[in-house]
Specification:
The chain has a single domain, classed as Alpha/Beta hydrolase fold, catalytic domain (Rossmann fold, 3-Layer(aba) Sandwich). It has ten helices and eight strands. It has an eight-stranded mixed sheet with strand order 1-2-4-3-5-6-7-8, sandwiched between helices. Strand 3, helix 4 and strand 4 form a beta-alpha-beta unit. Helix 5 crosses helix 7. The chain is globular and about 60 Å long. The mean pLDDT is about 95. Keywords: Hydrolase. This is Alpha/beta hydrolase fold-3 domain-containing protein.
Length: about 325
């Protein structure tokens, strides 16, 4: 079927996004241009009572400092707030926290929380484990500076989209393995979890046809791993779906579209989490392709945002986190 034919499976309110973005492609020759397009437009401002500060925090031993955005309500709080370690998407090869700043500023008001968003090093220049170690450094820093940040170290969660969702899942596994800061939750939005997806062909009509295709997936994973994806010996901290055990992970939210390339790997991960006794909320959004939230006015995007925020709100207020 042609791309035109496959559009019948797309939510009608999301089709204008496809017109704006055009055919999806990403490789070594187009990466610089794709990165440039990911830069937030200049002059973006709002009148929200929220402060956003840019800082450098220590990386893990032997690693460079890590740039972060620290976002919090301007209003003082008599008690420590919950907090979110946020990890942006971009196929491991592009993106930055600034592109999500407008949305994250909304989050801190709606959730009355603080957010630290990580400007982790990108592949292919910095393959695994560099991006993951940058994110872990931010988690360690948040927990260590909890008093200065006025956050509750028992109510820190991790959230990410796409590759950021994969990194978030990797952080949950890594801090469990290292005995690091405990997480109150993980919020994984269409997470990129399994390099072995490159070995399969989508069998759901429209799945993987838009915005993040199988060809782009190969490039993203190959860049991140520094080797061909799908083979033996891949670390579960790089591809969380390869983890032997998902026991003792924090309550989890997973949201994914019905025609997202990652649908099957996300459903498989969700099933394994439930089998491990991890509290799980799973949402599948009909007619939604990868990164559908780039169309903010679509009702499916609004529903997705509401469900995700509600899950984080409840997780951060949960008695288990206190």
């Amino acid at each position: 079927m042609t791309e035109t034919d496959l559009r019948q499976f797309v939510d009608p309110e999301l089709r204008p996004l496809l017109d704006r973005y055009g055919p999806s492609a990403l490789d070594a020759t187009s990466l610089a241009e794709a990165r440039a397009k990911r830069q937030p437009p200049p002059g973006m401002k709002d009148d929200l009572p929220v402060r956003t500060e840019i800082g450098l925090i220590p990386g893990m031993p032997g690693d460079p400092d890590v740039r972060v955005l620290v976002i919090a309500p301007e209003a003082a709080s008599a008690t420590p707030r919950p907090a979110i370690l946020h990890i942006h998407g971009g196929g491991f090869v592009m993106g930055n926290p600034d592109s999500m700043a407008a949305a994250l500023r909304q989050w801190v008001l709606k959730l009355d929380c603080a957010i630290v968003s990580v400007d982790y090093r990108l592949a292919p220049e910095h393959p695994f484990p560099a991006p993951l170690e940058d994110c872990y450094a931010a988690l360690v820093w948040m927990a260590g500076k909890a008093a200065d940040l006025n956050i509750d170290p028992k109510r820190i969660g991790v959230a990410g989209e796409s590759a950021g969702g994969g990194l978030a899942a990797g952080i949950a596994l890594l801090t469990r393995q290292r005995g690091g800061p405990a997480l109150a939750f993980q919020s994984l939005q269409y997470p990129m979890l399994d390099d072995r997806t490159v070995l399969s062909t989508p069998d759901i009509p429209g799945c993987g046809a838009f915005l993040w295709t199988p060809e782009m997936n190969v490039f993203g994973w190959e860049s991140y791993l520094g080797s061909p994806p799908g083979g033996e010996g891949i670390s579960p901290f790089a591809a969380p779906a390869r983890a032997a055990s998902l026991n003792d992970l924090p309550p989890t939210y997973i949201g994914v579209g019905s025609i997202d390339l990652f649908l099957r790997e996300d459903l498989a991960y969700a099933m394994r989490l439930m089998q491990a006794g991890v509290p799980l909320e799973l949402e599948i959004f009909p007619g939604a392709f990868h990164a559908f939230e780039l169309e903010p006015r679509a009702n499916v995007t609004i529903r997705s945002s509401d469900r995700r925020l509600d899950a984080m709100r409840r997780a951060m207020a949960s008695p288990q986190a206190d």
